[in-house]
Amino acid sequence: MPPPQKNYHTAAPEPETAIDRSHGDFPVAGDSDEEVYFKTHKAPSYLAEIEEQTKQFVEYHAETTGKRIALVTSGGTTVPLENNTVRFIDNFSAGTRGATSAEYFLENGYAVIFLHREFSLLPYSRHYSHTTNCFLDYMIEKDNKVEINPEFADEMLVVLRKYQQAQKSNSLFLVPFTTVNQYLYTLKSMSTILQRIHTKALFYLAAAVSDFFLPSSRMPQHKIQAQPSGKLVVDLEQVPKFLRRLVDSWAPQAMIVSFKLETDNSILIKKAKDALSRYQHQLVIGNLLQSRKNEVVIVTPNGEQEWIRLTEEDKSKKVEIESLIIPAVKHKHEEWMKSWQQKSTA
Ligand code: 9Z3
């Protein structure tokens, strides 16, 4: 009797074509950089709590409002150089793009998870929290009481109403991070939770995440002391390219929009295209450090480029470029959702 058929097979090579082992084995397939990263770096202690709150937020909108959810990342990241951190490396981002975009997502009917660098700008309060817009300048004293300066009151009322509406409708969920490690862990957890709403999730990755970090295995516990050489040499590693994982396994059905920041105009479009072909996501918004508040370019995987620019008239009316970016992104998101629908009915 022939041996019972096995319902699995192995990938063992046929004896006649077997690899000549005398030359030594191929290296065992290694973990990806992201896997190594998560194995060798601890999750922030508060992560479980944030996961629980995120689940509730996502569940609420999935069950009650049916809104799409935009996960907006915003602000810079710090790269600590010591465990008890006295020194760290940081970057310029104040979170203006992220905070402003979050407001326009809310206005365009989205619920927003705002994953932001702690103490960077927040939606709505950003109008009064920056050093050039100190909230105290909006106040006056009258009859021993504090009042809003009538000059600004109308404008403030508009912002206040929008802010309260976002709160009342439970449409804005604020989640802070500080370090690259906290950012990566939180993004990973949230994207997995957002799988619940499939294509209705949109990632808008505006945070300026550091490309380099100091692995925890090499991080000194205490403040770095003066060196005999008189120099401080810092040996950083490359932050793993997590975007690929986000696209192919953490949030495979979500629409993913990343930003590409350059300072040299001549390489911006090429770098945006490279990112799209490398990570296989849906949209890159390119911007230059110098002109980021006045123009951006939206680049799609099929090579289309759409510049969004503020006109002189827009600028004089204080139009914010995000008020033009978000409807364009929303439109692309709608196309993305439709393309999935067509796939599933085909
Ligand atoms: C951006 O390009 C944002 O638009 C800015 C916004 C950080 C320029 P602000 O906070 O600035 O409003 O002052 N964000 C993404 C920057 C980035 O690090 N992108 C990575 C890259 O360029 C890809 S994820 O390689």
Which terms would index this structure?
346 residues, two-stranded antiparallel ribbon, 10 helices, binds ligand 9Z3
**Class from secondary-structure proportions:** alpha/beta
- What is the CA-CA span between the terminal residues? 46 Å
* Number of contiguous helices: 10
Strand elements, count: 14
Low-confidence stretches: 1-27
Q: What is the general shape?
A: globular
Q: Summarize the main sheet.
A: 8 strands, mixed
Estimate what percentage of residues fall within beta strands.
15-25%
SSE succession: HHEEEHEHEEHEHEEEHEHEEEHH
The helical percent reads 25-40%
What is the gyration radius calculated from CA atoms?
24 Å
Widest β-sheet, arrangement of strands: 7-4-1-8-11-12-13-14
Instruction: List bound small molecules.
Output: ligand 9Z3
How confident overall, as mean pLDDT? 91
Characterization of the model:
Residues 1-27 have low confidence and may be disordered. The protein is globular. The protein has an eight-stranded mixed beta sheet with strand order 7-4-1-8-11-12-13-14, with helices on both faces. The two termini are 46 Å apart. The chain is α/β, with parallel strands linked by helices. Helix 3 (96-107) packs across helix 10. A hairpin with a 7-residue loop joins strand 2 and strand 3. It has helices at residues 33-40, 47-65, 96-107, 126-129, 150-168, 180-194, 242-250, 265-279, 312-316, 322-345, and strands at residues 69-74, 79-80, 88-89, 111-117, 139-142, 145-148, 172-177, 201-205, 212-213, 237-238, 255-262, 283-288, 295-299, 305-309. It contains ten helices and 14 strands. It binds ligand 9Z3. Ligand 9Z3 binds next to helix 3 and strand 11.
